[in-house]
Amino acid sequence: MKxxxxxxxxxxxxxxxxxxxxxxxxxxxxxxRFFFNHEKKNNPPSSPQKIINPLDGKIDVExxxxxxxxxxxxxxxxxxxxxxLQEFRTNSKGLVTFHFFDYNSIKDQKKREDFQMELVKKGxxxxxxxxxxxxxxxxxxxxxxxxxxxNGREIPVQILENQFSVGAQGSLNNSISFLEYKLANSxxxxxxxxxxxxxxxxxxxELGIEPLQEFLKALAEQNFIxxxxxxxxxxxLNSEIDILLIAKPQTTLNDYEKFLIDQYVMSGGKTxxxxxxxxxDLDSFKLAPSIVAVPRxxxxxxxxxxxxxxxxxxxxxxxxxxxxPIIESVGGNPQPKLFxxxxxxxxxxxxxxxxxKNLDPVAFKFVSSLxxxxxxxxxxxxxxxxxxxxxxxxxxxxxxxxxxxxKPNPYLFNQKDIPxxxxxxxxFSSLYKNQFTADLQKLLAIQNVTFKxxxxxxxxxxxxxxxxxxxxxxxxxxxxxxxYDKYSxxxxxxxxxxxxxxxxxxxxxxxxxxxxxxxxxxxxxKAKVLEQKTKWQIATxxxxxxxILIFGFIYSNRRKRKYAx
Length: 565
Hints:
3 domains; 12 helices; alpha+beta; Rossmann fold
């Protein structure tokens, strides 16, 4: 009898072990994650298969979101990152490899600091975390990001979103929501045979390297190839240019130059327009107490009008705005004091488009309005707009610096949602469809190119502010981070917005749609945990014990009935 019970026990144990092994193998080779929204419905992410499956070489991902004593939210993000990379590894049949590295494990302080500087140079931003210890709370420096390596190239990925507008919980949710897109997009870029080429238009007083330095740096870190181009009337734009970026031209474009841009668009080239239609600059107040804002003539109105948007020659004033310093006498000593400046609108995102979804506010300087026009072949999407307390001021218009000290009349700010940035998608019609002169025909004949009256499906973005891409400089002339305002010390999402625009324009796989996935992680309420701590401790101890007692009672009674016969 004892041998029989022993053999049965061995069989049960063997079957259990076999079941565990089978389940493990199923999860290992058929890895899948399930996401549930607040309605408890499965909300799967967009599949990375289109990016991962065609890989023909190895991808190594080095994750620095690691270490001991991390806060609960960071641990959740860490686990999400690991699970997603496991899915990538499975779908790529092992071509995607990854490992987590805690740089704090480097014991030598000098080596650890050198390693930190190396990560910063590569494009990762450190974050100070508040970590609970036995002695209280301490600060811990972490790099919540990763470096993706392939083909001798590297791309940094910032895993943790630091968004001041949504707080720590919102930043964590957005970080998890955008995680798949960020990793898959970086893998796509680093494995491209021909990296995306962005050319900056030159020759019309456009923004130079110094004001664009941080934007250029951000683009280079994301493996974009940067170039500059001047419009030559005897030469069409290079077809290898993926995006033509027109950043704040200040002089008029002639018809030849407009024709070259037009045919570039008709041939499938993507464009980003960062336009200042008004001549107005804060530095002008150094010379006079007031300035007159006047229209800037760029000769682009008819071209943009044909594509589906009109850039107005006005100024958008908004009560929701940034601040500027004005010198005031305090106790006989001149000191700068910050005042709201309605000519510097701050746009708070209200849209669900993947370019701006969950984006922090974006700061503008002397921005004009945009009007979308009726064109059935072109879809217009307003990306950024003014607040509900704004208005459009026609120019010429005199602006007094001292006016910032006066409280504006709210009744005058009776317009809302004035468009400031617009996405155009569709089939664009050439401006020169019915204006094809002999000179233009001669130009095409030299290049042995046929005139294109209409484009295939294409897209462009128009932003009514050139300085949106410009970084400030500190007192020593060192460029500050794009979006950082040196006066208010706020960080706006200018860089993220512009990078998202670029990514969307060149995204042929609709990978950016993965940004639309929403994940809401609900961390424990610490106050509630402390309040109910004793109750749950008793429950977790007593409940298993009660189950054992019930099982023992039932088992004992069954044996008594069985052997009492």
